[in-house]
Design a protein that fits this description.
This protein is an alpha/beta fold. The chain has 2 domains: 120 residues, Response regulator (Rossmann fold, 3-Layer(aba) Sandwich), CATH 3.40.50; 99 residues, Beta Barrel (OB fold (Dihydrolipoamide Acetyltransferase, E2P)), CATH 2.40.50. Helix content is 32%, strand content 33%. It contains 8 helices and 15 strands. Strand 13 and strand 14 form a beta hairpin. The longest helix has 19 residues. The radius of gyration is 19 Å and the shape is globular. The N and C termini lie far apart (54 Å).
């Protein structure tokens, strides 16, 4: 099965380069191209789009603004000539950020990661991990085993995620969204674009912040409803 991809970029040369890379990759299929996000909406609404290669600075609407309008975006890989948008992009859960001109080697690294993410999501790895007591991540060329019981919280930091545990920190080249796909839904809650916490590690909640492992973390307005919903299931109320 091939992953269907679209390119959103107003530069003809950049479009052509990405198109050539896609055509040289056996598990990818080019489903369409657009010069701006408005034009791309028709491609996305047609369905069955797995990956979007998205530029940032474009006419009519920027790639960042476009991402913010999508409720359930497919896998997004940014392709930009400007490095300064990287942090904001990763806050919006893009899978990777490629600087132009995009080499085939760097392109391949990104799409292999996208393929692995797609397959993990498709085959419901979250269910498998919910039955396990541990997971593995790659840190500094080593594979590290982490027990679920030891995780205090996870923090997005640009192109990486820091997993804070009882004894140490593990920094891994993943996205928070990617890790979230592995975690048991009923046991973890997203409280902020940059933070994911185990519900059983929450010590207290006060307005727009909570305490985990004696650390105060912010609670974003966008995630407060989800937090309240999961907490209320365990909240003892007066009858």
């Amino acid at each position: 099965m091939k992953l269907r991809a679209i390119i959103i970029d107003d530069e003809p040369l950049a479009q052509k380069g990405l198109e050539d890379h896609i055509n040289e990759t056996g598990f990818l299929e080019l489903a369409g191209k657009a010069e701006d996000p408005i034009e791309a909406l028709e491609l996305l609404t047609s369905g069955n789009i797995d990956i979007v290669f998205l530029d940032i600075e474009m006419p009519k609407m920027s790639g960042i603004t476009f991402l913010e309008t999508l409720k359930t975006p497919p896998i997004v890989i940014i392709c930009s000539a400007y490095a300064e948008y990287a942090l904001k992009s990763f806050e919006l859960d893009v899978l990777d950020y490629l600087l132009k001109p995009v080499t085939f080697e760097r392109f391949t690294k990104a799409v292999v990661k996208a393929k692995e993410f797609y397959e993990l999501k498709k085959h419901g790895k979250q269910e498998m991990y919910s039955q396990s007591e541990y997971f593995f991540v790659k840190c500094n060329q080593k594979i590290e085993k982490i027990n679920f019981a030891d995780v205090n919280y996870l923090e997005a930091m640009g192109n990486y995620v820091t997993i804070h545990t009882k004894s140490k920190k593990f920094i891994t080249y993943l996205t928070l969204k990617g890790i979230e796909e592995y975690l048991p839904k009923d046991s973890y809650v997203r409280i902020h674009k940059s933070y994911l916490v185990p519900i059983d590690k929450i010590q207290s909640i006060d307005e727009n912040e909570l305490k985990v492992a004696d650390t105060i973390l912010p609670v974003s307005r966008n995630y407060k409803e989800e937090l309240n919903s999961k907490i209320n299931r365990r909240l003892i109320k007066r009858s």
